[in-house]
Amino acid sequence: MPRPRKPRRVCAQPISEVFGPLGAAVRSGGSMIAMTVEEYECLRLMDFEGLTQEECAQQMDVARTTVQRIYADARRKVAQSLVEGTPLRIQGGDYRLCSDPNGPEHCGEYCGRRRGGFGRGRGRREH
Ligand SMILES: [Zn+2]
Fold first, then answer.
1. Distance 22 CA to ligand 1 centre (A)
2. Ligand 1 centroid – CA 119 distance (Å)
3. 40-91 residue pLDDT tens
4. Are 57 and 63 in contact (CB under 8 A)?
5. From ligand 1's centre to the CA of 97, what distance in Å?
6. Which of 4, 23, 29, 50 fits a 20 to 30 Å CA distance from 125?
């Protein structure tokens, strides 16, 4: 019997739902790689913010083994998108937003970093 799963904590939705190669119009109905918001969050926390798996697991409120699986899936999808030029659509999943002011919680740590200051993430303001 599957255990009821607690929604993963996610700070914010991605800036855009769809990412893909420039110059290749995204055809509606064309094939896309489906990524969940949790997978996106995992990449953001570990590859952008520089968190360890352990820290990422705590932040998302999941087991470390779960983070490993989510992260592996996320990276495989990003790689596939880059190599094949297949657009990536990030939506859905099982998560709760902690940056939602009406939400039950606010982590206060990684919320909104994208817009204000930036932490250990690199590349965003390097022109
Ligand atoms: Zn947060």
1. 31
2. 14
3. 999 999 999 999 999 999 999 999 999 999 999 999 999 999 999 999 999 9
4. yes
5. 7
6. 23
88-90 and 18-19 beta bridge pairing:
antiparallel
Q: Give 10 Cα–ligand 1 centroid separation in angstroms.
A: 6
C-alpha torsion sign, points 117, 37, 104, 64: negative
**Helix, strand, coil percent values for the chain (each to nearest 5):** 30, 10, 55
> 3 C-alpha vs ligand 1 centroid, how far in Å?
25
Q: Which CATH code is given to the segment(s) 8-20+31-97?
A: 1.10.10
* Distance of CA 113 from the midpoint of ligand 1 (Å): 9
**Contact at 8 Å (CB) between 19 and 90?**
yes
Residues 6 or more apart from 19 whose CB is under 8 A from it? 81, 87, 88, 90
Residues 6+ apart with CB under 8 A from 92: 34, 36, 37
